[in-house]
Amino acid sequence: MSYIDLLAWVVENKNELIGCRIDNIYNLEKLDNVFIFKLHCKNSDKNLIIEPGVRINFTKYDIQKEIGNKAKSLRELIRDLVISDVQIIDKERILKIALSNGMKIIVELLPRGLLLVLDDQDKIKFSTEYKEFKDRVVKPGLPYVQPPKQNKVVVPKDIQLALHLTSNAEEEYEKLEKSIVEGKITPCIQKGINFMPIEFEGCEKGNSFNDVIDEYFLELTKQKEIQKITEKIEGEKKKLEKTIQQIEENIKEYEEKAEELRKIGKEIMEHYMEVENAIKNKEKKIKLEDKEIEIDPKLSVTKNASIYFDKAKEYVQKSKKAKETLEELKRKLNEIEIEIKKEEEGRKLSIRKKEWYEKYRWSFTTNGFLVIAGKDADQNESLVRKLLEDNDIFLHADIQGAAATIIKNPKNITEQDIYDAAVIAASYSKAWKLGLAAVDVFWVYGSQVSKSPPAGEYLPKGSFMIYGKKNYIKSVKLNLAIGFKINDSLEIIVGSENSVSAKVKNYVLISPGDELERTADRIVKILSEANSINAGKELKNEVLSILPGKSKIIKVVKETNDKQ
């Protein structure tokens, strides 16, 4: 990001940051210098990516993350603190994020930039790197000194080209800076090539500048993660390729040597009389076919030839064993190449945009109607108060302790679609934890659901009043199907068997059981193998979050229609 990029992002997002509480901090998986700050903000939770020396932006993508040592250190220092202010320092690519206890986060987007945490006296408490640079020393306890400032304003070449600047570049650059400060921002992106807060040739306009930053770095992040993950495997591959090359050279050498020795044996037999005379004269060498050959004068002509034939056989055996080893190594190389491909594909699939409804339990019916259900009493309350409209369908398992379930915009809905939603309502209820095989589910229209209790009565959180006739679906089986839907990214889908089988060819069917972790492991293993991908630990965590409780796999359907 250039200074103008940072300025535009701060102008657009400063108010979004101020007041947010730092809920948690992670590293991107395998990239320990890229941080995800999970923020609890006024209107919603946000994920802020900070990559020192590169970028800062909110991300809408679900990215696999882990807790590295740097993330742990940051958590200990600034977790639960609230962002009180955001400022750019000295018109440089340096951002200061003030926190509620007087501490500051410094994000340097300059080349070789750092992420630092300073105390209320501006002394260093944390840095992504501790080092003595040419112009400053970065060590714990020392005052923070920013990188040396450039004396002259340098207008980035891409901005010069975008604005067609030939002369008075600095003056025009200042005008651009002023317009950005005034909020005149035109988010524009040329995917994989460039992004700017102004329109430029060949670009597509975005909804927000943050979105174009997020989109631009998406592919770069994938490539960085792939490179990091495959580095070790690539190292093994190169060693193997070198060994294979050496063995191939050895095989060629063995075969040439065997041929040479056989030829000598033949020549000895073809020149029988000459060799016999040499033996009689006690000669140890004889010249045959312009080549000098060693012989043993104590042995007969035939035995001398046999020595060469036997040596040739030894080299043939060496060649045979080397070829067997070569085949085994080539098999291993093929396995490594498959593993690299799987890792690359798995990583490409691991980053995707999360939709608004994914904070709830969700599914799509056979005919594509969105079903959302609450994960707890708070979400049940939120769904009914904020999202349930009069024409929506509300479902609830006929048991105390169940998810409020909604079918959105059910125009021309079929009985099958309502049953699909009933499976979600039934499965995410206490019935699953009790190990029941089935439970009744009722449904009504949104207009029949109210949060207002009768006069003098009280409704607990997550409870509702239902007015009018209830429509019952009897004995809805507690069977959930889970599959991996793969396009440009991987999405775990869940629902009735009918709805999931309409979308994917590989899926598992689960019911209440007695294992959680092991069932999640098995689901990930089965579906990863069926879809030829390598699964990260985040995939297991997602599957665990989907399971209604302890479960067992009762059916496996693969593309070949094999069933286990």
Entry summary:
The chain has 564 residues and is α+β, with helices and mostly antiparallel strands. Helices cover 39% and strands 26% of the residues.
Characterize the structure shown:
This protein is 39% helix and 26% strand. With 564 residues, the protein is α+β, with helices and mostly antiparallel strands. The chain folds into 5 domains: 3-143, ibrinogen binding protein from staphylococcus aureus fold (Roll); 157-206, no CATH class; 230-350; 361-477, no CATH class; 480-557, no CATH class. The strands form 9 sheets. The protein has a 6-stranded antiparallel β-sheet. The longest helix has 62 residues, at 209-270. It is flat and about 130 Å long. The two termini are 52 Å apart. The model has no long low-confidence stretch (mean pLDDT 89).
